[in-house]
């Protein structure tokens, strides 16, 4: 089994400066880390990434904090300007909104692209320094789409694989990107490209066909094949999963059982509806709040009998747009509570902080309905975590049709269009009225999928696709060697 070399923008640890030379190291939150960390902890390997704070990295606190991680951690440093132009700039003001179909939120500042390339080159150098022969090199996510190109320019010919955690947009949206051709060319320097869903693969292939006229696409049943500059690139969908057993066992634990009972007991006679997201405009939080408000307006039977618990995890708060976005959420929560609350009932309970893991699990266990409405999402792990923690099979999931998870959870979820506030409001009523037998039947179906297609299944399927690739390139290099030998002999 080859060593796994994971490369992502952020490390699974966040470094925080408490002033002077004092540093704290805390586990980072977010979908990528939740999924990849348990895998690396189990298999071992190396993780290359940025610890989340600009400037020089004094290694000691990081080395100490990661000593028992079960894998090696290699930090990449970013200056403040690089953080601003590469991370906040190209990654989060161009790619993130564009790939979530929110083109009006993009800032196509030309300087950002140069910073993006330069930082990707820094990551490429770190990979070139760390990589050993036969390592499985696996680059993650939208911040690092230029890494393979940078490695090829440094004459690295090893197999390179990539997984995109966020959606890939359709051609009509992608074609707004000023660097569309350069970015696709860079992506085609990887040997295996993994996407979350069939929809993303379709979009990517459509963009390749329209933008890269010198490619040939060979449709295949499992992995699609693209021929480009004498190379073959394989493309597939690999829906990311979660560590099912760890969530299910966590939900059964005494501490979580106690906390969830306490939570339930605090709101007798009320069905609890849960929303939990990072602070991000792609997650559809205002739309969800407006739908909840409409539900209370249109369906008086819900008043006093449902409560929305909305957890918003602070994220990218340094970006002004995110700050304004938080104010919008605050105002909506204030409006709903101001209009509908009574002396004994508060319609929205709002937490703007990251819950401890046990508290999060207790919320999953205690809430009757999960209300997850991203405008677009690569996958959405919260939906899968919620199903997993419903160990009694009782619970309803209202899920945006534009979340990647909708492809797998379709048989049990109540799918909604997050732009249709009235439809979402009516679905709240439907979920509220749904009887236990129906809820259980739906939940069982979803839990089966989440259990079977868990994070280890995801890694295995990606690694298997990568291993096939290694066999292909071995055959190709043997062919090249024998062709060269034949030419030499006949010369
Ligand atoms: C990206 C893609 C894709 C949430 N609240 C708390 C908390 N969380 C954790 C959840 C979950 C993670 O954060 C969020 O994951 P998502 O998948 O929902 O979203 P992104 O962070 O946007 O992730 C996404 C993912 O990558 C993986 O490929 O699914 O589409 O955008 O794991 O548990 N964790 C804690 N307290 C909270 O209050 N501790």
Overview of the molecule:
The chain is an alpha/beta fold and 491 residues long. Helices cover 49% and strands 18% of the residues. The chain is built from 18 helices and 17 strands. Strands 5-4-1-6-7-8-11-10-9 form a nine-stranded mixed beta sheet, with helices on both faces. Strand 6, helix 5 and strand 7 (160-163) form a beta-alpha-beta unit. Helix 4 crosses helix 5 and helix 10 (254-266) crosses helix 13. It is globular, with a radius of gyration of 24 Å. The model has no long low-confidence stretch (mean pLDDT 91). The structure holds GDP-alpha-D-glucose. The site of GDP-alpha-D-glucose (GDG) has 24 residues, from helix 1, strand 12, strand 13, helix 13 and helix 14.
Radius of gyration: 24 Å
Percent of residues in beta strands? 15-25%
Bound molecules: GDP-alpha-D-glucose
Q: What are the segments in which pLDDT stays under 50 over at least 5 consecutive residues?
A: none
Distance between the termini: 41 Å
Major beta sheet, strand line-up: 5-4-1-6-7-8-11-10-9
Shape: globular
Question: Biggest sheet, open or closed, and with what strands and sense?
Answer: 9 strands, mixed
Count of alpha and pi helical runs: 18
Q: What is the structural class?
A: alpha/beta
Report the mean per-residue pLDDT as an integer.
91
Helix content: 40-55%
The count of β-strands is 17
């Amino acid at each position: 089994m080859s060593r796994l070399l994971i490369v992502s923008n952020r490390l699974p640890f966040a470094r925080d400066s408490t002033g002077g030379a004092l540093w704290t190291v805390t586990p980072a939150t977010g979908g990528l880390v939740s999924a990849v960390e348990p895998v690396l902890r189990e298999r071992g390997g190396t993780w290359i990434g940025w610890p989340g704070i600009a400037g020089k990295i004094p290694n000691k606190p990081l080395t100490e904090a990661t000593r028992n991680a079960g894998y090696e951690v290699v930090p990449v440093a970013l200056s403040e300007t690089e953080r601003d132009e590469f991370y906040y700039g190209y990654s989060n003001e161009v790619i993130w909104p564009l790939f979530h179909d929110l083109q009006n939120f993009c800032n196509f500042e030309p300087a950002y692209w140069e910073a993006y390339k330069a930082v990707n080159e820094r990551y490429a150098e770190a990979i070139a320094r760390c990589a050993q022969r036969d390592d499985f090199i696996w680059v993650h996510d939208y911040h690092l789409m230029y890494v393979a190109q940078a490695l090829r320019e440094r004459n690295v010919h090893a197999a390179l694989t990539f997984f995109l955690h966020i959606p890939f947009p359709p051609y009509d949206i992608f074609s707004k990107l000023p660097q569309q051709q350069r970015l696709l060319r860079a992506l085609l320097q990887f040997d295996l490209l993994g996407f979350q869903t069939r929809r993303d693969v379709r979009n990517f292939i459509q963009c390749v066909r329209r933008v890269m006229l010198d490619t040939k696409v060979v449709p295949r049943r499992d992995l699609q094949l693209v021929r480009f500059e004498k190379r073959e690139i394989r493309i597939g969908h690999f829906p990311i999963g979660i560590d099912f057993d760890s969530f299910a066992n966590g939900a059964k634990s005494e501490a979580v059982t106690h906390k969830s009972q306490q939570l339930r007991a605090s709101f007798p006679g009320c069905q609890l509806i849960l929303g939990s997201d990072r602070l991000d405009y792609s997650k559809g939080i205002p739309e969800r709040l407006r739908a909840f408000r409409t539900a209370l307006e249109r369906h008086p039977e819900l008043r006093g009998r449902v409560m929305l618990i909305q957890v918003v995890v602070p994220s990218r708060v340094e970006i002004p747009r995110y700050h304004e976005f938080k104010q919008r959420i605050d105002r909506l929560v204030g409006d709903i509570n101001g209009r509908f609350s009574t002396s004994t009932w508060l319609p929205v309970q709002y937490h703007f902080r990251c819950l401890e893991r046990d508290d999060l699990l207790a919320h999953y266990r205690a809430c009757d309905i999960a209300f997850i409405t991203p405008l677009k999402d690569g996958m959405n792990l919260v939906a899968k975590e919620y199903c997993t923690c419903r160990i009694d099979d009782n619970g309803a999931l209202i899920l945006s049709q534009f979340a990647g998870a909708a492809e797998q959870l379709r048989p049990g979820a109540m799918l909604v269009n997050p732009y249709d506030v009235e439809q979402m409001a009516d679905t709240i009523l439907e979920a509220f009225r749904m009887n236990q037998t129906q809820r259980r039947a739906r939940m069982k179906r979803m839990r089966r999928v989440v259990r079977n297609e868990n994070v280890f299944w995801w890694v295995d399927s990606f690694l298997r696709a990568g291993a096939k690739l290694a066999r292909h390139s071995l055959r190709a290099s043997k062919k090249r060697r024998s062709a060269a030998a034949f030419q030499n002999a006949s010369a």
